[in-house]
Each structure stands twice: as C-alpha cells, then as structure tokens.
Amino acid sequence: MELLGIHHLSAMTKNAQDNVDFYTKVLGMRLVKKTVNQDDPSMYHLFYGDEVGNPGTELTFFEMDQIGQNHDGNNSISTTSLRVPNDEALKYWEERLTHLDVEHEGIVEQFGRRVIPFRDHEKQRLMLVSDEKNEGVSGGIPWQQSKADPQHGVIGLGPIHLTIPDLERTEAVLTEVMGFRRSGTYEFTQTENEVVVFETGEGGAGAELHVHVSPNLHPERLGRGGVHHVAFRVQSEEELYQWIDRLNQSKLGNSGFVDRYYFKSVYFREPNGILFELATDGPGFTTDEDELNLGETLALPPFLEEKREEITKNLKPINY
Known about the structure:
Layout: E1 6-13, H1 16-26, E2 30-37, E3 40-49, E4 58-63, E5 76-84, H2 87-99, E6 108-110, E7 113-119, E8 125-130, E9 156-164, H3 167-177, E10 181-188, E11 193-199, E12 208-213, E13 227-234, H4 237-249, E14 258-259, E15 263-269, E16 275-283, H5 302-305, H6 308-313
Parallel strand pairs: 1-4, 5-8, 9-12, 13-16
Antiparallel strand pairs: 1-13, 2-3, 3-4, 5-9, 6-7, 7-8, 10-11, 11-12, 14-15, 15-16
C-alpha cells in the first residue's frame, strides 16, 4: 500500500462563471467535468485538469453564491501549486500574468525549484512551479485547445501547502498511517518559518506536502478563495478498502467507502482538522462523456439523473 501522489484539490468559489473564465481563459486549463456537489446538488462542482483530467491534474471548485471571503489562517490548505513544464514556461507565465493584471510575486526560488506565487480573482493562494528539475511523479498533457500556449501549459498539481499550529500529531499521521516520508526542510521567506516537506510514492512535485508550522495564527475561516480538501491517489478500489481498514485500526474517524462515480473515496481529518481524501485513479471522467466533449454539458452520476430537470432549474448557465 502506497499513495501515488496528489489526486485532486477542491476549493471554494462564489461565482461559477467567473471561475470558469479565470481557469480556462487565464490559466488555460480544460474544464473536464461540469457537474454538481453530490452531497448538495444545488451547487456546481467544476473540475479542471489536463486534456482528460488525469489523476494528479484535477483542480476542482464548489460554487456557493452566498459565501463570504476566505479568512486565511491556521489549520488550512494554504497554497495550491500548479506544475508547468520548465523554467522557460515560467517566463511565459510571468509575462502573461502581468499582461492580464493577475496579482503575482514574480519568479522566486523555493525548495530548489523556480516558482511564481500568485492569486486568482478571489484571492486564492496559488503557485506555478517549474518541472525543470523534477524527478518523480510525471505530469499530465496540456490541453491543445487551451487559451494559453499549450507548450507552456499547466501539467498538473504540484506541492500542496498546509499551515498548522502543531507538527507532531500531523507528522505521525502522515508518516505512520499514510506512508509519507520527510524529504527536506526550507525557510519560507515571507514568514521566516521553517517548512517541512513530506513526499509519497515516486516523490517529486506531484507527490509533496509542504507543511508550515505557525502556532500564533488564528484558525482559518473557510470562504471563497479557500480550499476545502486535498485528495491523494490510490491505485485501485481493492486497495482503497485496505486504506479504510488502516484508518479504522489507527482510530481515525472516517467516512467509510464513498462512490463518487468518477472515482471511489474515503474522507478523514488529520489531527489539526484539515480534511483529507483518498481517491482511486479510476474510472475517470470519460465514464459518461467522450474525450472530445468533456465538460460541455451538465454531467450527473446515475443516482442523480432522475432529478436532472429539478437540478438544472437551480443552476445558472455557464458560458465558455
């Protein structure tokens, strides 16, 4: 049993149309699935990724039109990284973000890689990470019809940053239960705090957690521009059941097996309250749509299909 890397990350948005405009037109990602929150079908659940939304490339958003602004703080997933092919791509993105008036900090060094910290239109903390020196989990394939140059396009999720007040208990879960291993430390220049890096599977940018320890921060209040949970890759449904057994044996409260149709999952919280998910690599997003037409219509899992008319009435159309 070994987690293969980052599977997806789910964040919060106030407006689905504005969200689609930013992530497809500015970042050039593909909307690979337009569906609803299966636990609350009144809201959109949007999935962006590479050309087919391969595991490890999926950035997703729940739309809540009444949600307030995120208040950054502790006990949080504090930065989401997006991988690009190389250092040359970062130069392209630095120019593009500047041209499109996207707030960013320019190209800087972090943990031996070149990165661009930036924020989206709702102030979500993001980071473009160069794969120039990456060894480990391979990236995906940028969408060739992207609004951005596919040669420099986003190829997947990179290191996910957590901010917590106490490392000891979280590290125990990461290493003793989830099988992560320490791979290094660095000083985060913005806060001068030490960041501890953990990796799983083949390692590399697509399989890392960067854990910031900040005992003096207030807890985060989740809102638009905040992150709901991060998911890690499990090879098969059979192995997912083994992970559920391990969580139970470790006395970690969890959701049990959940069928999300496009993948199977289990959810639990690490000791500082951050929501983790373990998700299978398959069956994937071509289960109910062909590759050429991914994301073009509202996709619903079979158990919601009979409610399609009612669900559609409650959703505002998205143009893209």
